[in-house]
UniProtKB/TrEMBL annotation:
Family stated for the protein in its record: Belongs to the bacterial sugar transferase family.
Main location group: membrane
Gene: wcaJ_3
Segments crossing the lipid bilayer: 12-31, 51-71, 83-103, 109-127, 285-306
Protein name (database record): UDP-glucose:undecaprenyl-phosphate glucose-1-phosphate transferase
Location in or out of the cell: Membrane
UniProt domain Bacterial sugar transferase: residue ranges: 280-461
The organism's taxonomic lineage, starting at the top: Bacteria, Bacillati, Bacillota, Clostridia, Eubacteriales
GO terms under cellular component: membrane
tRNA-binding in keyword set: no
MF terms (GO), sorted A to Z: undecaprenyl-phosphate glucose phosphotransferase activity
Organism for this UniProt entry: Acetobacterium wieringae
Length: 465
């Protein structure tokens, strides 16, 4: 089943908004100064001046669209609410723009033209967003862009949530089933009862789901804790519907919502925010392209020397576990003998590992062997900065041994990470590594990424990172 990529979706959405704003301004200029609708003799107002005005309009409108929640996931807001926010954002945007022009005494800009721009941009953006929703609805009706969920609690809270999901297909959710201690395994209003909360671990292993929605009464604190622990053990995100949600509707701090039903996120992850995802992904793509161009001579020489110094393939690929617990192929320059590749699948690489070739030891020490992973970044498997991905064998092992280990799979793995620049790399403490990974995930900022990126160079040159 093909699932949507929220980062890519928001990137496309921003591009569409940029096109709408730009096209609206050009259309307004044409109507005011070229078309026959205004017969006042004003025919030659400089187009360049209005194009230059986009340098103010575009960032202003994007910030307003973000402020009014127009880049939140479509699943959790109705179209009427979105249209209302579009109108408000455009009203405030044109008001700020005209105030700024008045303050700067830029009186040569046409008020008629700016009024046409306001109407056009508002209407075109509503049409744009409505068209996108229509496309998404059609895709979801065909089984694409669906998120599968399990609802823990088949009582009135869980049934209300399930009814919301079933009643609005554009939300893009599908209920796999209920988990409840007071119902036998059967159907509840057409939705299967998968088992009891004590069977939660087995249920999550049997069914591939994206989220677990907890809809238990407040008196079930122990069961809620147990369910959250099991879900984090399995690396599945959880959200809670409090049974007092009718008392706190409208509260936005610390809450998410689905059509008026507040959901408590059990773990705040900054990279769950669409704008943060888009910024990080955009930087990953731009930097990866630039770095691959800059290091292409090094990669070419490395490829030749790998081939000359040891028989076998130039690129070594290995299965790793990435975001959402999905497996992918990671690429490196081969640094070991071919006859050591299979044992290497189940053993840590140590500093004086006898399996490494002489040239392989050099590229491992300088991290040149990691350069092909920028291709993984371009593919979307990895990020430049993030928790290092591990092999499935170790993921299964550490999942049982280390509390909250699977939380690292809530974000894209990285070529470098906070744990690695702190010295926790290779055959070192996995507990310390996970502590650093969780700290990075929970405290992510763009500046945190920049800090780790530049600390990586220091680590490489000082300690052979």
């Amino acid at each position: 089943m093909i699932k949507s990529n929220q980062r890519f979706f928001n990137f496309i959405l921003v591009l569409f908004d940029l096109c709408v704003v730009t096209a609206s301004l050009l259309f307004a200029w044409y109507i005011r100064f070229v078309s026959p609708f205004f017969d006042d003799g004003v025919r030659t107002m400089n187009l360049r001046a209005y194009i230059d005005l986009l340098a103010i309009i575009i960032p202003l409108y994007l910030v307003l669209f973000l402020f009014f929640g127009l880049y939140k996931p479509y699943r959790k807001q109705r179209f009427f609410k979105e249209c209302r926010e579009i109108v408000f954002a455009n009203i405030i945007g044109i008001a700020i723009l005209m105030s700024a022009l008045f303050t700067m005494k830029s009186i040569h800009f046409s008020r008629y033209m700016l009024g046409i721009f306001f109407i056009t941009s508002t209407v075109m953006m509503i049409l744009e967003r409505g068209s996108i929703r229509k496309i998404l609805r059609m895709a979801r009706e065909r089984g694409f862009n669906i998120k599968y969920i399990i609802i823990v609690g088949a009582g009135s809270i869980g049934q209300t949530f399930a009814a919301k999901v079933a009643g609005d297909r554009q939300l893009g959710y599908k209920v796999t089933g209920y988990v409840d201690d007071y119902y036998h395994k059967s159907d509840k209003d057409g939705i299967p009862i998968l088992g009891k909360t004590r069977e939660m671990n087995e249920i999550l292993e049997e069914y591939q789901v994206d989220e677990v929605i907890i809809a238990l009464p407040n008196t079930s604190f122990k069961r809620i804790d147990e369910v959250i622990d099991i879900c984090e053990y399995q690396g599945v995100k959880t959200q809670i519907i409090p049974d007092y949600f009718h008392l706190i509707q409208g509260t936005t701090a610390y809450f998410d919502e689905l059509d008026g039903i507040p959901l408590i996120n059990t773990r705040y992850i900054p990279l769950d925010q669409p704008l943060n995802k888009w910024i990080k992904r955009a930087i990953d793509i731009i930097l990866s392209i630039l770095i691959l161009i800059l290091v292409s001579p090094i990669m070419l020489v490395t490829a030749i020397l790998v081939k000359v110094t040891s028989p076998g393939p130039i690129i070594y690929k290995q299965i790793r576990v990435g975001m959402g617990r999905r497996e992918f192929w990671i690429y490196k320059f081969r640094s070991m003998r071919c006859d050591a590749a299979i044992p290497g699948e189940i053993g840590w690489t140590t500093e004086n590992d006898p399996r490494k070739t002489k040239f392989g030891a050099f590229i491992r020490k300088t991290s040149i062997d990691e350069l092909p992973q920028f291709y993984n970044v371009l593919k979307g498997d990895m990020s430049i900065v993030g928790p290092r991905p591990e092999r499935p064998h170790y993921v299964t092992q550490f999942q049982h041994e280390i509390p909250k280990y699977m939380i690292k799979h809530h974000v894209r793995p990285g070529i470098t990470g906070w744990a690695q620049v702190q010295g926790w790399r290779g055959d070192t403490s996995i507990h310390k590594r996970i502590e650093c990974d969780i700290e990075y995930i929970e405290k992510w900022t763009l500046w945190f990424d920049i800090k780790v990126f530049f600390m990586t160079f220091k680590a490489v040159f000082e300690s052979g990172y």
